[in-house]
Design a protein that fits this description.
6-stranded mixed beta sheet, 538 residues, 13 strands, 24 helices, 48% helix, 5-stranded parallel beta sheet, binds glucose-6-phosphate, alpha/beta
Length: 538
Amino acid sequence: MSTLTEKPSWQKLKSHYEEVKNLHLRELFAEDKERASHFTLEAAGLYLDYSKQRITKKTMNLLFALARECQLEEKRDAMFSGEKINSTEGRAVLHTALRNCGDKPIYVDGHDVMPDVRHVLAKMADFASKIRNASWRGFSGKAIKNIINIGIGGSDLGPAMAYEALKPYSDRSLTVRFVSNVDGTHLAEAVRDLDPAETLFIIASKTFTTQETMTNARSAREWLVKALGEAAVKNHFVAVSTAADKVAEFGIDTANMFEFWDWVGGRYSLTSAIGLSVMVAIGPENFQKMLSGFYAMDRHFAEAPIEQNMPVIMALLGIWYNNFFGAESHVILPYDQYLLRFADYFQQGDMESNGKSVTKEGEAVDYETGPIIWGQVGTNGQHAFYQLLHQGTKLVPADFIGFAKSHNPLGDHHAKLLSNLVAQTEALAFGKTRAEVEAEGVTGVLVAHKTFAGNHPTNTILAKELTPEVFGSLVALYEHKIFTQGIIWQLNSFDQWGVQLGKVLAGRILPELTAAEEPKLNHDSSTNAIITYLRKAR
Ligand code: G6Q
């Protein structure tokens, strides 16, 4: 048995689960009129109500004990102080240094990284301002109107999500697009209505070797060169990378390269130079406000006691359902159109971090690890998959996220949006009993169909408005939730070996698909047949 499931707090949680698994939220709220106030917390501009969770005070105390037994505080401090906690890659994990608004140095191998971080931020701000005030111009002298970020995974999802989230703060005269897929359609559709003379490409790749990004970057270069000639490349291409040699090889002047470091993981890189497209869109001041929101949540996570620590509480609740109730997924439901990519972003953030089945020490786990993360903005999901949440057979813990004020106060839209958010959490928790259905005059078989069991757990996360600061806090909240869960599950949340095999095999299959001569195929019979079909049908 692994050391996790042997821990006294884990064992206690197991027997406690047997005691409370059938308790209904209806009973829990009836027993304690003050329940909401016992399970509500505010931090870094965010309000979390977790009273609609299937927990008692004892549950939380046992979960807090588990966190302590797993040395969460020590391990959190190790991350913040630059220890090489990404053991399989021998790297520190210091995305928190990128938004360190304090004056403390942070050391990696005896070197204070803070001056480097500030230097790159200043360089980004200078560049963003030049694009915004049109002092950086295209080769033919036209102002830049279009920004295309070419990157994938961690070099795409963060800026793409943040750009949408902070659109109200963006310069609306700029067109900002994100190209990630190696499918040529993505690039072709992104540039089809653009003037190359007004278009700037940001090639965002930590390694500058990623197949999709380099393929898209080369095709973008051809598109530009065809219109403006080879000499135009320097005005229309900049890079965000850790690999200066490869950037130069591509033909981008390294003076126009924005650096980051191997201690920034791809999916945690939004606040590094990977956020350059966002900074161009919203301006350096708003970007700084976003960083200060991240920093506020970083401080909260680093300093608040476990019992009042928002990311820790959310992480422990996730463990409670994942490991004791057997929930397989977790749904994120932002009631704000600007957060339309939020669930996608944390699908990577969470599943690439904690979708693992061996511990840091390489031992196979004998417990469940990271859940399947999915989601959709409200209210769209209500007319689609919420049926399953309310009356299906699966337990799906949910996060509802909403803002008191809208950036688009159009008639009563916002009140309607919020009323739906609140109504859903109420309906999920309390359901509708048979007696209530019958009291409405419903009879026969319809009674069962119209009954809602309820007892579906939800978090409600609220803030006044989706500002850059609040956005930063919200993203950091989920990052630290993922970190906390990784510690408890004893994983390395900062590597991603699981994406390697497919990459290697694709490299082998590419020439088999494209070779003029019929290749000799040595795969299994299914793979051979698929390649043969595609060769014939191409
Ligand atoms: C994220 C992963 C991965 C990575 C992409 C792009 O944590 O490492 O999604 O960001 O594979 O990599 P490059 O930035 O090196 O192109």
